[in-house]
């Protein structure tokens, strides 16, 4: 491999699952990374990542994994990111950049940035991509192609480190959007966290509806199943997200509840024109993102 | 075609779109119907239905369409069903059965049953099947295969007429469930009408969230698009459903709102165990219907 296009000579991927594994595959395919070292608490997953060629080697410890890395990518549960950063800091090479793929940014950036020793850098990131599957088996090189990746610099962020992170995501095929971490958290509260809260509550409400002796969910057709697919997401992950982005989630839940109450009053009043207008506006917004 | 398996000699389909066209195709394929006459306000649609062989002939008027039919199937907007029944009654053959595919049953059955002259019969029905497409082009013979069809007899329903309707849906491949119309309306309020209300409100809430100058929906990934697909449904149809099943829809909206408020208080309290339990119960219910 020619080193001319290399952005990162030694990349450490902490957590080699769908997100970390796909980034490793994408960057290798793009020819922008020298060596890839993987670290994973799940030893079997790490062995498979090595066998599949997703990483060049698996490190036994965080210390060994990040040693000599010029860039460390964290794809671990979002609640765990600050603790992992704290643990790996003593082993970082001079000039190393630490970045992440966590789906909450405000608390993560606020916790991690002040930890970094002089000459090392933290840059927050969040690729808007994923599937409902997990593990290195689920990873693929084109996961990020044509997707947006939000990178959340602060006024203190090193411009060169920021440029490296941006170029990496671009090499993976993403369109990079720079955004304040606070704004990011409000945005994902709206387009991702709120829908999950709604889906979880909807399934529990329908299941808990006790007018029928028999389980009414068995009458559900494809529409209900599609609509509630995201309620099958990992409960521990969503617990963490709800806790980490509490303010944004609460704000959007209240915002939604107000619209839902408006719709309820249109139904209760039998307001045909108002109902059709409400549904039509929604359909037009929805159709615009098809 | 042998007439030995024939359940209906002359079938009139009023509204030859996805629902009516698919039933016609399925019954013809099953060899249980002699002649199929179509009626449709959309003349072009009716011409295509004839060209495609979905109907043997298209009738110019409701009177001509139902003349001599032993079974009339109504697949017209649910609000229009009682008026159409009123219009076709003078032209019904003795012994004729009128049935429908409307997604609200209580008001429809209560309005239509008393209209029927002696010796003719109304039986309410609702196949739990469909796609987001419409028109006779969207119809196909296997739409009802393996799906449930709810038929809603009353204490006054003629048993022979009921048996004919049940055998028709079974011939189309459906599993028929007999249910009180009121219970049906509560059930579809839960598994279909509530999810639509939630999806419409969600899209409007997210679109109306004005913290960002730019349209935040453009950041949405596949999960949001899948989740909100049903918000692209026909506004006029859903206006009618919300009006016709107002009581059931309101009850389920309030039921959902209570669960949503519980989840909101778990988030606000930062109750990690409570959140994980809420999400896990939902995931278990959802995974059970995969």
TrEMBL record, chains A, B:
Pathway: Amino-acid biosynthesis; L-tyrosine biosynthesis; (4-hydroxyphenyl)pyruvate from prephenate (NAD(+) route): step 1/1. GO terms for molecular function: NAD+ binding; prephenate dehydrogenase (NAD+) activity; prephenate dehydrogenase (NADP+) activity. GO terms for biological process: tyrosine biosynthetic process. Residues 9-290 form the Prephenate/arogenate dehydrogenase domain. Gene3D superfamilies: 6-phosphogluconate dehydrogenase C-terminal like domain (1.10.3660.10), NAD(P)-binding Rossmann-like Domain (3.40.50.720). PANTHER family: PREPHENATE DEHYDROGENASE, PREPHENATE DEHYDROGENASE [NADP(+)]. This is prephenate dehydrogenase. It comes from Geobacter pickeringii.
């Amino acid at each position: 491999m020619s080193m001319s296009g290399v952005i990162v000579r030694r990349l450490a991927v902490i957590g080699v699952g769908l997100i970390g594994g796909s980034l490793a595959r994408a960057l290798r395919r793009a020819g922008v990374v020298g060596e890839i070292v993987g670290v994973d608490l799940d030893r079997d997953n790490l062995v498979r990542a090595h066998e599949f060629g997703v990483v060049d080697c698996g490190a036994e410890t965080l210390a060994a994994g990040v040693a000599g890395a010029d860039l460390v990518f964290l794809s671990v549960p979002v609640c765990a990111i600050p603790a992992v950063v704290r643990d790996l800091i003593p082993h970082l090479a001079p000039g190393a950049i630490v970045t992440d793929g966590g789906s909450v940014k405000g608390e993560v950036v606020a916790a991690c940035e002040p930890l970094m020793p002089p000459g090392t850098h933290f840059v927050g990131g969040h690729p808007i991509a994923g599937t409902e599957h997990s593990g290195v088996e689920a990873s693929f090189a084109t996961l990020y192609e044509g997707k947006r990746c939000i990178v959340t610099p602060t006024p203190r962020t090193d411009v060169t480190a920021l440029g490296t992170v941006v170029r990496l995501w671009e090499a993976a095929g993403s369109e990079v959007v720079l955004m304040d971490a606070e704004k990011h958290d409000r945005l994902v509260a709206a387009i991702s966290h709120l829908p999950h809260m709604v889906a979880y509550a909807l399934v529990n409400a329908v299941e808990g509806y006790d007018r029928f002796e028999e389980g009414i969910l068995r009458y559900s057709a494809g529409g209900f199943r599609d609509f509630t697919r995201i309620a099958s997401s990992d409960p521990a992950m969503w617990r963490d997200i709800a806790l980490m982005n509490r303010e944004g989630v609460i704000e959007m839940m209240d915002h939604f509840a107000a619209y839902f109450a408006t719709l309820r009053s249109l139904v209760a009043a039998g307001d045909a024109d108002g109902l059709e207008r409400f549904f039509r506006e929604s359909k037009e917004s929805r159709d615009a993102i098809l």
